[in-house]
């Protein structure tokens, strides 16, 4: 009774907003799509959609079927892609989602030797998952998530692979550069430069400024690490980044890392993946390689 085409249709209608657009996406005629869904509704004995003006809204039964479709269709597509890769003599694909801007530089150190060790595995890195990677893992959009802030959920596993310290970055001529560490109140007169991420997901706020009820004089956002550190080097503000990254850039820019508070801020990079993929050998190999990076 319930077939894959029904699940694909209900997803397409939800994503496009109309039967016409859904039919175009699925390469069906509108009449064929409408007939297929009417037949299913007759078999189920309940409507799946109700019309509101020009748009369609799922009924309670439709919402349930849509949730099933959003869970199953990506898994089927992923399985088909993997089988096609096996048929071509390939091992599979490892789609990596990034949930942290500076982690990209760290990831490059892992990907290069991994590609050499696993020539039959395709690797794709997606940077669009800024703090949305959990849904991407569940939805089979990615196979692995790189994040400093794991969110433990059923059916997912997170493993720490790299320890680092989050530090303040200043120009070498800045008075802070000569200090053993800075206190939160010292940043009250500073321009703080960060990635375009909500403050409640930034360690400089959650673990340093906010607990002390301190806010910087100004908060600017910049998307790229290179431009951010150029701004810091020219005395336009301070930033907070991993110490290892700052030390790499310090070889070519006049910047300096300064410890945040007397205890510092210790962080880890985690790799998250689905529990069901625990025994995938090329995924496990990536985790083990990342531990030694």
The first-to-last residue Cα distance is: 51 Å
- Return the string of H and E elements: HHHEEHEHEHEEEEHEHEHEEH
What is the arithmetic mean of pLDDT? 90
The CATH homologous superfamily of the largest domain? Periplasmic binding protein-like II
Strand content: 15-25%
The top-level CATH class of the largest domain is Alpha Beta
Number of helices: 10
Radius of gyration: 24 Å
Assign the structural class, choosing from mainly alpha, mainly beta, alpha/beta, alpha+beta, or little secondary structure.
Answer: alpha/beta
The helix content is 40-55%
What shape does the CA trace take? elongated
Number of strands: 12
Kindly report the CATH topology of the largest domain.
D-Maltodextrin-Binding Protein, domain 2
Account of the protein in words:
The protein is of the alpha/beta class. The protein has three domains: 4-86, Winged helix-like DNA-binding domain superfamily/Winged helix DNA-binding domain (Arc Repressor Mutant, subunit A); 89-162 and 268-291, 3-Layer(aba) Sandwich (D-Maltodextrin-Binding Protein, domain 2), CATH 3.40.190.10; 163-266, D-Maltodextrin-Binding Protein, domain 2 (3-Layer(aba) Sandwich). It has helices at residues 4-16, 19-25, 30-44, 60-87, 103-117, 133-138, 203-209, 225-233, 243-249, 281-291, and strands at residues 49-52, 55-58, 92-98, 121-126, 144-147, 156-171, 181-182, 191-194, 218-221, 238-242, 255-260, 265-274. The protein is elongated. The mean pLDDT is 90.
């Amino acid at each position: 009774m319930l077939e894959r085409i029904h699940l694909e249709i209900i997803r397409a209608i939800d994503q496009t907003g109309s039967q016409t657009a859904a039919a175009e996406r699925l390469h069906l005629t509108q009449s064929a799509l409408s007939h297929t869904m009417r037949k299913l509704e007759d078999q189920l004995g309940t409507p799946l959609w109700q019309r509101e003006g020009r748009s369609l809204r799922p009924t309670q039964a439709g919402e349930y079927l849509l949730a099933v479709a959003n869970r199953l269709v990506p898994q089927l597509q992923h399985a088909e892609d993997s089988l096609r890769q096996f048929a071509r003599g390939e091992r599979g694909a490892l789609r990596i989602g990034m949930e942290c801007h500076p982690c990209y530089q760290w990831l490059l150190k892992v990907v290069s030797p991994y590609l050499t060790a696993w020539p039959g595995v395709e690797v794709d890195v997606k940077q669009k998952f800024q703090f949305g990677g959990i849904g991407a893992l569940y939805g089979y959009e990615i196979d692995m998530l790189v994040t400093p802030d794991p969110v433990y959920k059923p059916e997912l596993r997170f493993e720490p692979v790299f320890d680092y310290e989050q530090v303040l970055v200043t120009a070498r001529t800045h008075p802070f550069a000569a200090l053993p560490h800075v206190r939160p109140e010292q940043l009250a007169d500073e321009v703080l430069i960060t990635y375009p991420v909500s403050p409640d997901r930034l360690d400089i706020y959650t673990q340093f400024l906010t607990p002390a009820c301190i806010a910087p004089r100004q908060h600017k956002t910049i998307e790229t690490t290179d431009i951010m550190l150029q701004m810091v080097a020219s005395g336009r503000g301070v930033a907070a980044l991993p110490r290892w990254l700052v030390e790499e850039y310090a070889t070519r820019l006049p910047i300096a890392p300064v410890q945040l508070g007397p205890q510092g801020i210790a962080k880890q990079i985690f790799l998250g993946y689905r529990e069901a993929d625990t025994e995938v050998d090329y995924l496990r190999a990536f985790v083990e390689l990342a531990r030694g990076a």
